[in-house]
Amino acid sequence: MKTSAANPVAPPLNPIELIDWFAATARPLPWRAPGITGWGVLVSETMLQQTPVNRVQPIWEEWMRRWPLPSDLAAEPQGEVVRAWGKLGYPRRALRLHEAAGIIAAEHGDVVPSDVNTLLALPGIGAYTARAVAAFAYGKRAPVVDTNVRRVVARAVHGAGDAGPPSTKRDLDDVDALLPDDDASAARLSAALMELGQVVCTVRSPLCESCPIAHDCAWQHAGRPAYAGPPKKVQKFAGTDRQVRGKLLDVLRGATGPVQREQLDAVWSDAGQRDRCLDSLLVDGLVEQTDDGRFALPGEH
């Protein structure tokens, strides 16, 4: 287990206990099944960003049936990829994944790379996704940091009720300090930390009595103090541009070809917000306008 400048003293977590707990209790998610390729993991990690597992699972399964290789997805028109993305939200992820699939097929032999830096060079793949693919698909030692992992570290290591504002270097150093030196154990611990935050060490109702590391948790030893850091931003959805964009895309996903402007106008009464959202979809490449003024998903006119 490594230490870092952010953690000069070895952290209290026992990796063996956490790895054993994960091996015994991990949810049987389809992208964790034996034989799942780096492509399957990349698709799952892209879909899971800010989206619950129960919404992702059926769509992931359908994508993997239709497009088991990056080249299969790359061969599809962009519009069909956006349609298949359904209601997962943040549909630009679908376009970036489509673009990345083309590069993987053309430049990497249709195999998702295992190297973090090579992954980071692909469209739409950031620090989290690159490390998640390296760890979960290829069993590499890579600190994987998401909101759940940050919360586990804040409580178990630092004794805080929750994590404060994110800091890429500090957060990566925190998790790197916890990981065993060997690739296989580090990758399993990365998965275990994330699972712990998702199902046990939750935001509002942590199941401390079920936690495999409760006896070593700094937050427990401190009496479980309430979070006292800066207030967190709460993301609302109703009435936002995200909701309007989704409604506009719903019309196009349900159509067999280009639609008239009136069909889009009918989904939202605020003309100013509706026009702004339609313009943003055009700029993002999620919607295209035909020569006769109708609207369609990309490539479907």
Description:
There is one protein chain. With 301 residues, this protein is mainly alpha-helical. It has a domain at 241-296: Arc Repressor Mutant, subunit A (Orthogonal Bundle). Helix content is 52%, strand content 1%. The chain is built from 15 helices and 2 strands. The chain has helices at 15-25, 38-48, 53-66, 70-74, 78-85, 92-107, 116-120, 127-138, 147-156, 168-178, 183-199, 218-221, 241-253, 261-265, 271-284, and strands at residues 288-289, 295-296. Strands 1-2 form a two-stranded antiparallel ribbon. β1 and β2 (295-296) form a beta hairpin. The chain is globular, with a radius of gyration of 21 Å. The chain starts with 14 loop residues before the first helix and ends in a 5-residue tail after the last strand. Keywords: 4Fe-4S, DNA damage, DNA repair, Glycosidase, Hydrolase, Iron, Iron-sulfur, Metal-binding. Its cofactor is [4Fe-4S] cluster. InterPro entries: DNA_glycosylase, Endonuclease3_FeS-loop_motif, Endouclease-III_FeS-bd_BS, HhH-GPD_domain, HhH_base_excis_C, HhH_motif, MIG/MutY. Belongs to the Nth/MutY family. Its EC number is 3.2.2.31.
Could you name the CATH class of the domain at 241-296?
Mainly Alpha
Low-confidence stretches: 1-11
Tally of separate helices? 15
- Radius of gyration, CA atoms, in whole angstroms: 21 Å
**Average pLDDT number:** 91
| Helix proportion range | 40-55%
Which structural class do the helices and strands define?
mainly alpha
Largest sheet: 2 strands, antiparallel
CATH topology of the domain at 241-296: Arc Repressor Mutant, subunit A
* Name given to the CATH architecture of the domain at 241-296: Orthogonal Bundle
What's the total count of β strands?
A: 2
Sequence of strands across the biggest β-sheet: 1-2
H/E element string? HHHHHHHHHHHHHHHEE
